[in-house]
Amino acid sequence: MRLSCWPTLLVAASIYVLFFSLTLYWARLPWPLLVILGGITVAWHSSLEHEVIHGHPFARKWINRLLVPIPMILWLPYESYAKSHHKHHCDHTLTDPFEDPESFYFPKNGWKKLAAWQKRALTASNTLIGRLTIGVVLVIFGTLRSELNGFLSGARRVWFYHGLKLLGLSAYLLLVCAMPLWVYFLSFVFPGTSVLMLRSFLEHQYAQNPKQRTAIVDASWFWRLIFLNNCYHSVHHEHPALPWYKLRQEYLLNAKTYCDLNNGYIHNGYFNIMSEFALKPKEKVQHPQR
User: pTM of the prediction?
Assistant: First the structure.
């Protein structure tokens, strides 16, 4: 086994030790602590899925796939995530609400047709607090609606296998852990999705030059570990095959190059982002061109 595999394998082992410890002993933990640790676990696992999607740590895809057998986040099948994320990596369509599955922009023409409460909800979700709360609901329901459309259109194989995994996870939670599914959703799924919304909040912006659409957040060691250095997102988009533990080194060695590349779209940590955008919309919801 290559030495380069061990960082990712160590992360995977840590995630599953944490997950099984929290789910088995959830009733002994204070609820706020369970929510914090549960959310971090699900977000960390999503980062591991992202790493697997990009072909790490092994050369063979089927072996990598074995590292993420549990659908911890529930609402997003791994296969759907992989397909949409590869489409997201088409840089010339980044942020386009029609072409980029991970865009948070709304098309101008569609905006005019929304009800007032819908506009308020979308505007609120462009603040950080709104993104971590309302944005979670919008993303989950938006994804499930898209998945339902795919299911009704005949793409049922993904949800057949995902459904089997959900049954297995539900059986484990109910029969082994005696954890109600609503407790798992509120303690793991919702906060985990919220943590992911923190990472993606300023990840992309519209710019005419596609290279200027992707941010870098030079975060603390904790967030770098939970997001597996995906906070260096501009570096990741330039080198999607680069494993997570080399992204920061690549950025530090070529910081000025990346600063010039994305026109200084760089933020100094998530605390500063929280301070600036907690209640302030980061920009308009409408896409500038679409």
Answer: 0.96
